[in-house]
Design goal:
Length: 282
């Protein structure tokens, strides 16, 4: 092979090799997927059957990516005209004052449910080492001021749907038994829990129903069935999507709308659009 041909082939191979990098950096992180699926809930009233519940998780407002992407995604989400919207934690990346100010700008364009909008906190909302209570309170207030009902080991009923919200597993305020000790199994219940590892803790008091989580980002980069190298959970089965916990509980893990870092490969950012239906199973 001549030197000229060698250099030409080297450039060709370099260009081909650069494509996955450019895709995972500049395309997939901003290619949001609206995942539509059914959500069967026990004791759901006929009035709520067919209503739309939207889950948005892990915004990670900060300096790691252009957060205007979040606002653009919110604008697209409005087309679904949701009845309920739930935000499942990690609104910021570091919990700095700059993050808080930018979060205010993002949440001015937030998606709301016609019947109710609810949220819980995630570990990143607690700032450095997940222990900054000042950051968490600031974020809590920003969200409340923007019309989101925040739940910290609490429950609230909205139009017959009972929303139970846990504070984050890694935070100083994690205390799910505060609400689960007296949950009513006769209600149409739905649990919001940022970190899916909580599913393996002894805090459920016989609960049967759906749990909506985030936290994992689906790994952000993975080859399905082969490898998910970065997964911030103890239970490596908790990656993304629907998981049957085999005890009457069903888990759904949202892949996150934002990113810890601006890179995704085969794990598109997600907003989940659930259609509520009555679960007639005994």
């Amino acid at each position: 092979m001549t030197r000229k041909k060698f250099l030409k082939r080297l450039l060709q191979l370099s260009a081909v090799g650069a494509l996955p990098f450019l895709y995972s950096w500049q395309i997939e992180p901003f290619w949001v997927e609206f995942v539509e699926r059914k959500l069967p809930i026990k004791n759901l009233s006929e009035e709520l059957e067919g209503k739309i519940l939207m889950q948005i998780s892990d915004l990670h407002v900060g300096n790691r990516f252009d957060w205007n992407f979040l606002i653009e995604s919110f604008e697209k989400a409005q087309d679904y005209n949701p009845d309920f919207v739930v935000y499942t934690g990690d609104y910021v990346n570091h919990g700095t004052e700059e993050d808080h100010k930018n979060l205010e700008k993002v949440m001015e364009k937030a998606v709301y449910g016609k019947l109710g909008t609810f949220g819980i906190l995630g570990n990143h909302d607690y700032g450095k080492n997940w222990k900054d209570l000042g950051s968490s309170e600031e974020i809590y207030q920003i969200l409340e001021n923007n019309g989101i009902t925040m739940l910290k080991n609490e429950q609230t009923e909205s139009h017959g749907l009972n929303i139970i919200g846990f504070d984050d597993l890694w935070s100083p305020n994690f205390d799910p038994m505060k609400v689960m000790k007296d949950h009513d199994p006769e209600k149409a219940n739905l649990v919001l829990c940022h970190n899916p590892d909580v599913c393996d803790k002894d805090v459920w008091n016989g609960y049967q129903g759906w749990i909506l989580s985030g936290h994992t980002h689906g790994g952000q980069c993975r080859i399905p069935g082969v490898i998910t190298p970065i997964l911030p959970v103890e239970n490596r089965k908790y990656v993304s999507g629907e998981i049957d916990l085999q005890d009457g509980r069903m888990l759904y893990i949202n892949r996150a709308l934002g990113h810890s870092y601006q890179v995704r490969f085969m794990v598109r950012p997600e907003i989940t659009v659930f259609k509520l239906e009555r679960d007639e199973k005994v």
